[in-house]
Hints:
Elements: H1 13-17, H2 27-31, E1 37-44, E2 47-54, E3 57-65, E4 71-76, E5 80-85, E6 96-103, E7 106-116, E8 119-125, E9 138-142, E10 147-151, H3 156-168
Antiparallel strand pairs: 1-2, 2-3, 3-4, 4-5, 5-8, 6-7, 6-9, 7-8, 9-10
Signal peptide: 1-36
Keywords: Signal
Amino acid sequence: MRKPFPFSRRSLPALVAAPMILGAVTLSALASPASADTSVCPRHDYWRGFAVTADSHSVFGVTTEMTHGGTVVFQVSKTGQFILTNPKWDLTVGNRQPVRMQVGGTDYTAAAIARSPTEVEVVDMAPDTLDLSDTTPVTIDVGNGTVHWTLDLKGFDAAMQDAVKAFMGTSI
C-alpha cells in the first residue's frame, strides 16, 4: 500500500501550537544569512535547529550533515518540507526524482523536485503522520536506490524544540 509522503507527528508537540505561515525559504537562504534573519540553534547530537525569515517568508526546522557529504533538512513553513542535498549530484533542475522513506518499518513514497543540480525537495507533506523521534530508524532512497541514506535521529527532538522556540521568539 502506497502512503503519501508525510512530515512529522509525535516528536513535534510544539509544532501544533506554532503558527503556520505562508511562503517558503530555500536552503540557499539558510546558507546566506546576510540576506535573511537567521537563528541557528545549538547542536543536539547530530541535529541542529534553525529559524529563518527572508523576503517576508519564515520557516523553522532541523538539519544534519551526512557522513559522506550531503545534508538533510526537515523544515516547516506553510507545509512540511523535506530537502536533501549532495554536492556530488548533477541533477537537471525541475526534474522529478522518486523518493522512498522508511520510518520505523513503514514505507512512504513521493516525488521530489530538483531545485538545483545538488538539491531535491519534497513539498506538501502532512504534518501529522510521520513518527520522527530520537529512536525511530529511518532510511531514505532517492532516484530508485541510486542514493541510500540512513538517518540517526539522536537529538532530533531537542533540535526541533529549539527551532520552534527560536521561531516563536522565546529563549532556547
